[in-house]
Amino acid sequence: MTSISIIDKCKVLFDLTKSNIFYPIMIFVFIVISFLFVTTNKNNKKESKKVYGTIYAMIIMITLIKYSKSLPQIFDYTMNNLFIVFYFPNIAVYFCAIIITNIIMWISMFSTKTKSYIKLINSILFSIIHYIFILILGQITTYKIDIFNQKALYGNHNIHTLIELTSNMFLIWLCFLATYKIIITYLENRKEEKVLDTVKESIKQSKEEIRTQSNIPNTISLINTPYTIKRDTSKAKIVYNIPYTKENTAIYEQMLTLEDYKLLISLLKEQKIKDVKQVLEKQNEKIIERNKENRETNRKEESRVQNNLTELMALYKSVS
To answer: Is the pLDDT of residue 259 over 70?
Structure first.
C-alpha cells in the first residue's frame, strides 16, 4: 500500500465532489447545520430543535433511499465485527478498555457533581475489572501464552472466560452510565424549564397586579414632544469692560478671604469638640450619681434584711 500525499488526497476529494450534483447539495446542508449549531442559544433552542430534527430526518430518508443496497452490507459487517470484539477482543481493545475504566474512575472520584452511589458503583466495577486483569496476566505468565496470537490466547479456557466476563461487565457499565447521564440531563432540563416558567408566570402576575392597582392602561398612546424653547438673543444686555476703580471693588473688601474661612472652620471644630466633651462629662456625672444611688439602695436593703434576720433569730430563741 503506497502512501498518498495531502495534495493528491485533496484532489480526489474535489474530483468526487464535482462528479455528482448530490454532493454539493449535501455540503450546503451541512453548512446550514453548522450555522444553526453556532447560532443556537437559550432564546431559540426550541425552534432550533425542530429544525435539527427536520434536517436529520430528511438526511436519513435520503441516505436510506439512495444507498439502500450498500447500507445493509455495511450494517452486517459492523455487527459481525462488534460481535468479534465483544466476545473475542484482541489485547489492544482490552488495554483500551482498561484505560477507559481508569479515566472514568478518576473523573467520577474528583467530580463534585457525581452522586455518591454512582461513585460506589464505579469503584466496585473498577476493582473487579482490575482484579480480573491481574488474573489474566497470571494465566498468561503461567502458561507462557503468546498474546499476539489470537488462537493461543483464546485457546486457554480460563483466559477466554475472564476476557469475556470483563468485556460483558465493561459494556454493561458503559451502557448504564450513558443511560444514567441521559436521564439525569433530561430531568435537570425539565426542572430548569419548570423554574423558568414559574418565574415568568410570577413576573406576569406581578405586572398585572401593578397595572390593576395603579390603573395603568394596557396601551399607551404616543404624544408629540413640545416645541423647543429658544432664547431671544436680540434682547440680551451687553456689558462692556468696566475700568478698575475703588467704587467697583469696594464690595469685595467686606468679603472673607480663604484664610478667614480656614480660621472660622477651625474655631467651629474646636467649639464642636468642647460641646461633645461637655455632653460626655454630663453623661458620666449622671451615670456616677445613678451608681451611687443604686449602691445606697442596695446597702439599705441589705441592712433591712439583716435586721429582719436578727429579729427572727431572737424570736426563735425566746420561743425555744
So the answer is: yes
